[in-house]
Structures are given as C-alpha cells and as structure tokens.
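As a warm-up, study this chain.
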Amino acid sequence: MLMSTQANRYAHQLLTARANAQQIPCLTKDAELSIADGYDIAKRIADIRIAQGEMPVGRKIAFANRTTSANYGAREPINAPVWAYIYDDTVRYADNNHGLQSLKGAVQPRIAPEIVFKLGSAPKANATVEDIAECIEWMTHGFELAVCPFPGWKFEAADAVAAFGLHGSLVLGEPHVLSEGTRRHLGDILTNVSVSLSYSEGTEYTLHSAGFGSNVLDSPVHAVWHLHQMLKEQPQFAPLAAGELIATGTLTDAYPIKAGQTWSTAFSGVALPGLTLSFV
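Now compare it with the structure written out below.
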C-alpha cells in the first residue's frame, strides 16, 4: 500500500508536469505500483484540483477497447479498463458539431472518438446493464484529446491511472435526448454502431480508420456498467451520480495529432451526427 506522503509526492509531480507541459519518467520506472496505488495518487490529484477550484463533471473510461488496449503497457498489456475524472475546464461543446482546438500545452496528444452519455439519474447499487441504460438522459459523440507525460507513450496501467487517465480534454457534439424506447434497446443499438475516422491536412479527407461499438466492452452501455462495478470496490470515490458525463472509451485506437490537421467522423447504425475538429 502506498504511503500518503508518497502519493502526495507523485501527485504534485504529475500536476507540475501537466502545468509545464513536460514529459517525466514513468512512476513505475523505479517503484512497484499497483493499480490501487495509481488510484490513491489519482484521489490526491482530484482533491488538489477541487481545492484549486476545478469541478469534476463526470468520468472517462480508458482501455475499454478490447482490440487496442493490449497494445499499451510497457512491461505487460493493459487488459482491463480504468477510469479518471473529467473537469469543467477540460470539457467543452463544439458549435454545430464543428470545433477548433488549440494543442498548446498538450503533451504527445492523440485523438479518440467516443460515445458520451449524460446520466439523468444515479444507478442503483445492483444495477444491470438495462438499468444503466434507463439512467441515461442523453448521448452524444465526442473527441477526447488524450495526452501522455511519459516518453513514447510507454507506461504501465498504474502510471496511466495516476496521470489523469491520460485525459487532456473532451470536445462534445450536439446532445441527443433519448426516448424510453431507445433506452430500452440502447445496449444492442450501440453494440452494432460503427464510426469512420478521417483526417485532412488540406482540402481533401483521407479515411484513416474505423471502429465499432462492440469493441468497447461489447457496448458503450456495458462500459458504464463496468465503471459502476469498479466504483463499488473503490469507496474512496463517490459512486456515479445524476448529471455526470461519462466518456465510454474510444471506438478506434487513439491516434497522434498535430496542428494543421482536421479530423472528422461519420456514424452508421445510430442517429448521431459526426464531429469535425481542427487543430491549431
């Protein structure tokens, strides 16, 4: 178990690196840290950020994509999802599903297309996947900008948990309020959804990759259920609550981005508009 003084030291080290847009060695390079240790550091970071005036507005799920998550992990694959808080100053809405995003201060940024939910009510303790769907008020499409303070995107799961879940910012498209009928079948609908991801460095777009809802723990709704289950084993953190935003995990891999590029998505199998985001 990580001592409080150690957790605080790591927390301040990560916060300083974030503030200065610096890379640092992995925390696990010289220390044996468990996933639980990573969450202890994450809790210290959350307490500090809240004390400084930031407000958590939800959570992001990372490494939920079964087709890509095992590609991460310097010593062993990351085969289980993790989560981190997202904040009022890291989340914003695009205008008419088009946005402009500065990469200033973003360390090794990557883009990840996700399904994002807003909870209209808190799941009960023994909620099923169907119960989780009933709690969802609306869904939207979002681009997460993942950042990594560790050189070459090489880290262990505990490093990623501690380092804000690799969360940089989240840009959301237009929310779509769900009908009762849609919520009833939402898990299956999103299992079968697909997204195409394209990019441009001029006037023409090139198809980059595609992803599927089934990649994300069988469905983005299932991913929220997994998060709900994780939180039951982490009493130091509050359970899911009404009003929270949940970024459910990338539908594709997370890809490196740079200023001058524009990335765009298109969906099939669900009535969600794509999102276009340009970087400067």
